[in-house]
Amino acid sequence: MSKTEIDQVTAEFYGAFDNRDGKTADVDRIRRLVLPQGVIVCTAPTFTAYTVEEFIEPRERLLSDGRLVEFSEWETTEETWIVGDIASRIGGYRKSGVLEGEPYEGGGTKTMQFVRTPDGWRIAALSWYDTP
């Protein structure tokens, strides 16, 4: 059951950014999926480390102000290791949408560290690398 639960948390994370077909992206759900003290790091194109709130705020704005529409991202590959109440997942992902009127596509690799809490599996840390 643990793998299924981690799959669900991961899918919810990717789905938080979906604003296709006029939907409002639900990036607020990141606050539920990631521990409040979680660490989020982007290594490329520019190294940036975020708190959960620092990560959410610009994405919420970008996905709601009309600059990035018809956007979604999804996992394409994954490997998950579970030992007791901790888990690691690494996977490839793709993303696409329309950014400031132009088609936008990309992808990369994300790694997530999970912990089992009294409320279920949550993301403790997330890092990603966008491929050029």
Automatic annotation (TrEMBL):
<protein>
    <recommendedName>
        <fullName>DUF4440 domain-containing protein</fullName>
    </recommendedName>
</protein>
<dbReference type="InterPro" id="IPR032710">
    <property type="entry name" value="NTF2-like_dom_sf"/>
</dbReference>
